[in-house]
Amino acid sequence: MIVASSCSSLQLRQNVVKPCRASLRPLVVRAAVRKDKPAVEPVTGPNELAKRVIGAALGTTTALSLILSPAIAASELVRLPASTDPAVFAAQRTLVEAWTIVGHSFVDPAFNGHDWEVELREHMMKAYNSGDGSAALGEIAAMLEELGDPYTRRIPPEEYAAFRVSSDGELQGVGMLIANEPVNGHLLVLAPIKGGPADRAGILPGDEVTSINGVSTEGWNGEKAARLLRGKGGTEVHVRLARRSAGIPGVPARPDPPPAEPVEYRDVSLRRERVQLSPLFFTTLPAPQLPPGTGGLMPISTDGRVRSSSGPVGYIRLTSFSSNAAAEMRDAIQELEAAGASAYILDLRNNPGGLVRSSIDIARLWLDGSPVVFNVSGREGDELQQQVVDTPGAALTHRPLAVLVNGGSASASEILSGALHDNARAVVLGDEHTYGKGRIQSVFELQDGSALFVTVARYQTPAGTEIDRIGIKPDRACSMGGAPTNTFVAGLPMVPGSSELLVESLMEDSCVMAARDVLQQQVAVVANAATVASQIPGPARGAAAAAAAAARVQAASGMRRAPALTDL
């Protein structure tokens, strides 16, 4: 998914809260739907609207009245009954809060053809008549469904906490990745996060989690266990582990099913702390050994083979666009450059997106200057505005780049792949179009701890390609044979040459191999042009150098035709 900003307030020009007569106990709301351009944008800060709504509710057990905008001060009061049930009344307050935020921020000012004030009346009455807090909260979802936008939604507090973990790139926990073993359903440790509490305690991949705080994990799924393992920093959680073999074979993220009888049980107390999750991992792949002349693009050699001295191919897989993704991408590129990478594969398959800011910052690492990353249109359908890299500079590397995508590449993944493609920096490979999510959401933290995601804008690629419901079409097709994308877990730091098993698995992935072959040809284009340029004496050398530079641009853009060397 794409998140433009994490907003916790909707600050309005005027908010007046006052109680109504106690005998009526109504919930009185001045309509907040603005037909004109919003005067105030959502910003990060204390949730003033929520504080005033809740404050009024706590200050009187009867009713509250809201005047939410001077622009509609003359409009008719909407008088609705407020439930005497505390849970229902709390849901009604949250519904009003969500309704107001959508009224000010939703990208479609026509609200999908619905009268937004009428929607408030209808769903507030249904919430009142429900007599049940859970059912009353359900009216918020029902109201938002009228907008016809699946991305505008409310998520409960526990889901919002999980979202904060994924977007912040850190959590308060024990640093242990767990999942159910596919054969018997037991909870296994996929891997301890390096340097975390579990790692320091000697917990290994394949250890079985049999109980947490004295409660058996039989029948639990990984998410239920993870909720208990997470908690306030500095507190302890007690875990019992069964180590069923001295050495666990197989890829760390997918240990083989253990023997029936355990070797030993261990009781471990782990102190929760802030754990940094890595949104990417990287390694190097050996350069292919191909005969010269393939496509006319192989570099000149004396032994009839392409020399591996061109360097390995750097492989980077990005699993999410969290707040620390750009910094880790920078570190990965720098380490791969030091390892002698001659080209790069950026794997965005099954990456659902994340923070828009992160996609812009990552594009900056691969692109020179201040290029356009995407075009955006907002609430009123204004002309497209160009979003550019706001800290221009030189790219970290100019080596050829291939981007891998699939139908699970969405949102910020589509922003980044579209930016790299349309700026002639990368060739895109995949087995199908990307997901097609061309909408940007802001996140509003509500007073009850839940969060409201609201679509506030739509975007296109720099070249004007529509993304929403269409997706990005790869330049070249590749099959998803090998399917290594499910064998690795985000949070495991990988460094060049650190995992032979990782490389072996990638070498069985046909899309990775197709990208590697394309990149090798692009490296050869540059090598051939540079070789010819160096051999041309005198005045023609300048033209040859220009042709070599053009070859580098051609290689970066994924063009297949070799430079016309006869024109040099």
From TrEMBL:
Signal peptide: none annotated. The keyword Hydrolase applies. It holds the Pfam family PDZ_6. Keywords: Hydrolase, Protease, Serine protease. It comes from the Eukaryota. Residues 160-234 form the PDZ domain. This is PDZ domain-containing protein.
